[in-house]
């Protein structure tokens, strides 16, 4: 079963929040609500959820390519 909810965790300040991931679009930027830092995907990841979330984005969970075509 594909999950569209995850815990997004900021690696620097430790802030975490449960978010609902879009299932039809990638999210390349995420602003931390606590420290206002702008997170971007790590090299090799297709989106911020794959880099900083507790689960990968829905397309990756299904075994498909994400929006970046990687």
Cα end-to-end separation: 22 Å
Task: Please identify the structural class as seen in this structure.
Answer: alpha+beta
β-sheet strand percentage: 15-25%
Q: Count of DSSP helices?
A: 2
Helices and strands, in order, run as EEEEHH
Radius of gyration: 11 Å
Strand order in the largest sheet: 1-2
**Helix proportion of residues, in percent?**
10-25%
Biggest β-sheet strands, sense, barrel: 2 strands, antiparallel
Report the uncertain regions: none
Average residue pLDDT: 82
Q: Give the overall shape.
A: globular
Q: How many beta-strand runs? A: 4
Account of the protein in words:
- With 70 residues, the protein is of the alpha+beta class.
- The chain has two helices and four strands.
- The protein has helices spanning 48-52, 58-61, and strands at 5-9, 16-20, 30-31, 38-39.
- A two-stranded antiparallel ribbon has the order 1-2. The protein has a two-stranded antiparallel sheet with strand order 3-4.
- A hairpin with a 6-residue loop joins strand 1 (5-9) and strand 2.
- The two termini are 22 Å apart.
């Amino acid at each position: 079963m594909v999950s569209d909810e995850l815990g997004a965790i900021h690696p620097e300040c430790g802030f975490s929040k449960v978010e609902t991931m879009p299932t039809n679009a990638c999210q390349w930027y995420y602003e931390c609500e606590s420290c206002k830092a702008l997170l971007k995907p790590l090299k090799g990841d297709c989106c911020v959820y794959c880099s900083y979330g507790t689960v990968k984005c829905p397309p990756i969970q299904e075994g498909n390519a994400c929006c970046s075509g990687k």
